[in-house]
Amino acid sequence: MLDVTNIDVFYDKTQAVNHTSLHLKKGQIGCLLGPSGCGKTSILRAIAGFEPIKNGEITVTGNILSSEHFTLVPEKRNIAVVFQDFALFPHLSVAQNITFGLSHLSHQQQRDRVNELVELVSLQGTEDKFPHQLSGGQKQRVALARAMAPKPQLLLMDEPFANLDADLRDELAKDVRQILNHEQTTALMVTHDQQEAFAMADVIGVMHQGAIHQWGSAYDLYHRPATRFVADFIGEGVFIPAIIREDKYLTTTLAEFVLPAKYNFTVGTEVDVLVRPDDIIHDDMSPFSAKVVAKSFRGAHILYELQLPDPKIQKVLCLAPSHHDHTLGESIGIKLDLQHIVVFNR
Amino acid sequence: MPTRLNVSMMLVSSLLALPVIVVFASWSTPQLQIWQHLAQTVLSDYVFNSLILAFSVGIGCLIIGTTLAWCVVKYEFWGRRLLQWLFILPLAMPAYIIAYTYTGLLDFAGPVQTALRDYFQLSYGQYWFPEIRSLGGAVSVMVLVLYPYVYILARTAFTEQSRNLKEASGSLGVSSFNYFRKVAWPLARPALLTGSALAMMEAFADYGTVQYFGVSTFTTGIFRTWFGLDNQLAASQLAALLCTFVLVVLLLEKWSRRQIRYYQSGQSHQPIMRKKLSLSRSVLMFLLCLTVPFFGFILPVGQLLIWALSYTEMGLDSAFFTLMWNSFWLAAVTACLVVLIALLYGFAKRLSPTPMMTWQVQGVSLGYAIPGTVIAVGVLVPLSWADHQFNQITALLFNLTPGLIFSGTVFALILAYTVRFLAVALQSVEAGLGRVTPAMDEAARCLGASPRQVLWRVHLPIMRASILSAALLVFVDVLKELPATLILRPFNFDTLAVSAFQYASDERLIDAALPALAIVLAGLLPVILLSRAMDKHA
């Protein structure tokens, strides 16, 4: 449905997006995730038609919207955008904001669509209010309703929850997902917050320095990170050193593993193995022990930072059930239980 | 497209900068003889009087404006709300008009001296009475109408100072007086000095008051050199000197704020805690504070009303309506034009935010600091030249001499007003445009609006209030403007300000009352607008 192929975006002479591609199927919710300045918003702006592209092309259902020498103006794209600061028109009421993009419809049709949308985003009773009279969450809902009103073929959302309180954020993310599903809208959002991405998206692209490192599900990003950056950026974890032995064996201080078939290292290579906090299991019977150097209570679990005797390994993290309350400086037995073996070159 | 925009904006900017450039360029042909004459006779008076006038007015406004603002922000007393409003009314009163009324009140034949003579049984020469038509008199009347510049900025600055600061100081054992000296004053200082600098620039620019009071300053000197000595170059050179003084004040003001970027940490929007005064102190405070707007507005307006209603022979006849009409359409046309140009600059800066464009906007904003006399000189010199050339060409080609089509028509006036008042409109327009975030443009575009529709459906409706207030401010400023109008008005074209000035110069103060009152009443409109905006802010 949306095909972005090998695009470059420049601001003056700085390159914000570098030969990047992504594809969304109809009804899918995609998300670009990355630290600020990674180029994710630039991709969004290029798709909306606010920025030209220098290379590649952007098509929606096969129609070219942008290419190296052509940029279709935003008003002809039928792509809606929800902005980070919502960008509601301060001089228009909620209902007038929602009908802004519906001037081609009759008054009756406009009214019907407003009623439908107001109900969908649970804003009944606010139709005649003005933006300054609304709370942050309500503004967000109006922005969404306004964007959805002309039934866009694609909805873009730029950090849609960044200006909201944490509680509100979760509630809205759930609602928005439901609304998008209800309207069968294809959507692409941008965020720096992985929880938000996990809550909203079917597919997530992790971006760094203008390129998408991995395009996949939240599960894949966490358990099968394609690059060291993705492994670092998503979730928590540490790398522990290992050596490739004969017969595709991998030796670490804590355990030995069979190297998955997809890797192709020569014998003797020194590599790093990704260890997530849930890969380290607290086991009093284990021959390995480590010293608790820091801990943070997380309700059901406690995240321990453990120092192994091996000075080459800095520290590992261990997510233990919160019934096991160990004091700082205590040594506890641990066992490495890797379900997904992720290895990177040193 | 942006390049075409940049080129056209450069042209507009050059036209607007022309008067100041012409004035300064006059120094390329020094008029040694005239300057020798001036230096031997009146130049020291010009410099001395202008400087004394400006600095005294600046300091007087600083003291009165700051005191009044402190009283209404820090104390709760009977009549405070009324006073807050009364304090800004003198803004509607041009200095030359208050000068006429006080001359009428305080000169030998005026009601005050007559009453004193009757009461004490004195006759001429037997008693001393301060002469209002003097440098001191000019300083006094100007302070009475210019202090609101400081008061308004001081009130905002004191209001914005967080209550926590006062409480923190209290907990550290700082007394109320020391709180003002050590915390409130240093925090508000940049704003107060800005207000004071504005008052000083107005004092430098004044012509009506000093001319009427017979005080020789740069502005009267420019008129005398131009029309008396008939030396336009020397007049331009004097104008350049005056301009330099004003620019120095402007630079000093900027310099005084050089690293001062005080801001209030955190968002503290607690209501201000005012100290409640007892009833007797409350009444005393009210009466003391009332004296300033009483002398600055109520008394002079009362005097004008009495003159206008009972004594004037002129009445509301057709001549007066011609005056009203001239002033009105001139101000209205200028206001529309100036707002249009301001919009042009606003949008140009938004569409192409290059350093060049920012620089141009700042450059043309300087016009407000340039005295009307200087601009008038700077407009008249190149336009006379253009007329001369144009007539020569048409005479050669068509045997026609159309006359002074640039310098002798309202074209010259409107150009001068535009240079002087563009900053007023620009400020308003830029504030309005600032409320339209770039994301709003983009939101409208992706909802199917073309750039032209974005302008009509988003920008203009959001900016409507700012555009209206910009037009109103320029309208009233044009109505009040005197020196540039005097120099540039077409032959036999009188406005309210010019006619008030001429009646007063002919010692017909009573006849000057009606046009003067019309100017003051029109001037009240933006003052009311301003007071409403300030209340909303507070």
TrEMBL record, chain A:
Keyword Nucleotide-binding: yes
The protein, known as: ABC transporter ATP-binding protein
Any one GO molecular-function label of the UniProt entry: ATP binding
InterPro entries for the chain: AAA+_ATPase, ABC_SmlMolc_Importer, ABC_transporter-like_ATP-bd, ABC_transporter-like_CS, ABC_transpr_FbpC, Mo/tungstate-bd_C_term_dom, P-loop_NTPase, Transp-assoc_OB_typ2
Every ABC transporter domain range: 2-234
Matches recorded under Pfam families: ABC_tran, TOBE_2
Source organism of the structure: Aliiglaciecola litoralis
Family matches, as PROSITE patterns: ABC_TRANSPORTER_1, ABC_TRANSPORTER_2
Gene3D superfamilies: 2.40.50.100, P-loop containing nucleotide triphosphate hydrolases
Keyword entries, A-Z: ATP-binding, Cell membrane, Ion transport, Iron, Iron transport, Membrane, Nucleotide-binding, Transport
